[in-house]
Amino acid sequence: MKIAVTGKGGSGKSTVSGALARQLARLGHDVVAIDADPNPNLGISLGVDRELVESMRPILNSLLDAGHTHNDPTPPADALLADYGVDAPDGVRLVATGKIERPSGSCLCCGSHNTTRQFFGELPAEDRVVLADLEAGLNDLIWAAPGPDDVVLAVTEGSAKSVEIARRACSLAEEMGVKRIIGIANRTISDDDVARISQELGVEMHTIPEDPAIEKADEQGVAAFDANPSSPAMMAVGALASRLRPSPGP
Ligand SMILES: Nc1ncnc2c1ncn2[C@@H]1O[C@H](COP(=O)(O)OP(=O)(O)OP(=O)(O)O)[C@@H](O)[C@H]1O
Ligand SMILES: [Mg+2]
User: Fold this and answer.
1) What domains lie within the chain, and their CATH numbers?
2) Averaged pLDDT for residues 193-208
3) What distance in angstroms lies between residue 248's CA and the mean position of ligand 2's atoms?
4) Residues 152, 181: contact at Cβ < 8 Å?
């Protein structure tokens, strides 16, 4: 199963991705987490040691350092995962696609998006979960190019701008043929919130409440899942993992 997590900046994509990856791993799945943000920080939400997060080399940066150009064929995704991935708690394997590190005359992002596309498209996911925490906005969703068998989570908090981006993400995903699109109403404080967001998105919904434990964990720079795995938001992510859980094979 492949899961693309998309939405506006600050809507909660990394918080949800990190906790969901951990919960799915605890349910017994082999999980690969892709940090597709050029300012990668999924490692923190996953509970990876801060020093390891800071020392990890994203794929694109590593390839460029090794003299690769955009025109060179890239090694297979599984080989890159083995070489440049790091181990996160509960057996999750984390890989970052690219990171902006210094000023440059040209932009890194096409290469980073391309790496996202390669990883999301190429990694076999018959017997594992590949979860991509995408860059904010809609561009990276197009690059990840999820298909009919994939799941798209459109994360939004309650603001009209955030809901509008999630709505557009849902309609893009639908156009790409994705059959399972789930709107994640994050930081909700009332049933009215959920009803309003659900009406705007017009897709299957899952609700994650506003939870002070998350902000507290973020202030301390630790994963919300490690700080308080039974906080209301973390319990809601656990319920999402159970909903998403691929059915056992024949
Ligand atoms: N359910 C929640 N309750 C309270 N705070 C939350 C919740 N979800 C996320 N947050 C807070 O919202 C902020 C943004 O969360 P997060 O970094 O996961 O968003 P993001 O979509 O990944 O952002 P970016 O686009 O910058 O990568 C964080 O400070 C986090 O603590
Ligand atoms: Mg993020």
Assistant:
1) 2-244 (3.40.50.300)
2) 97
3) 30
4) yes
